[in-house]
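Friendly challenge for the regulars: who can give me the structure tokens for this chain first? No prize, just bragging rights.
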Amino acid sequence: MNAYERVMAALALKPSDRVPVVPEIIQHALNVSGVTHSDYSTNPAAMVKTIIAARERYGYDAVYVSSDNFIYAEAFGGKLLFPVDDAPQLVIHPLDAGLPASLPPFDLSAGRMRVILEATRLLRAYYGDLIFIKTNIDSAPFSALASLRGPQKLMTDLYDEPDTVRALLWQCTDAVIRYGLEAAKAGAHGLAFGDSVAGLLNREMYGEFALPCAREAVRVLREQTGLPVFYHVCGNTNHILDLMLGTGADCLELDSLVDMKDALPLAKGKCALEGNIDTVNVLFNGSTQDVRRAADRLLALFGRKGGFILSSACEIPRNTPCENVLEITRAALEYPYPD
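First reply, four minutes later:
Bragging rights claimed.
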């Protein structure tokens, strides 16, 4: 069983030879390749070089094609800075001055959407169907609108202009779908998006504003591409975990503030789960022994019967010790799975 097959088995809730490993690595990979962040974020060849270097160093089962959370903001006219060796910074939100009746058109070939898409093409040509290619199409619709408006202003808008927000959310949904369809054409094996701003909503507001559009984006992308969709929400999502299952995503990526023991019975038979080794206390500040203990607890909970991908709880900090990252894969390889 190769890496691609291993990930697909987990997503299909089927057993495999071992649990697949798919850590969320973006900036940390720069420490492996030596590429600057500005080059990585704007040059598809540099992005591919970095992604391949990290995968060869750590031997995990999928590569993660991603940069930052300002892809939609840039596509809709936001102003960004690209420090030489730091993450891109959004200077002006496209909707900073107020909510329009409708969003301006965006060009999929402009900005850095083209960087992600071209990197996906190059990686698919390089790996074929041996390594799973997970392309991040940035944000689910609610968080995409937050990047256009600014999270704090959007939270106020929910109360002041709810009907306008709803209309713009459906327009963001169309943008997410368009981007996802292009990523599928570029060769992605799976599509991922995050909805971390939505995780700040209470249960009622999440169900009213974030869930319907995320569910529609997942539905259309799955139907029109046949690809699995990953849905990520940072932080403590215990209050909306059952609603997140309602997105229809093939895999929920859970942060370390969610206990997998609580999530497992909710997700069983419905979708796969990914996570959720603490990125700060264990991976960044801990020892290899800490990483192994955290990984083993998860592996013992799920075994290799399917429905689980071992990963970090969120993006691995850039200066995380390499041995700690490598220990994630070692744990999956060496765990004594019962027959």
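The two ends are 17 Å apart (CA to CA). Residues 162-186 form the longest helix (25 residues). Your move, everyone else.
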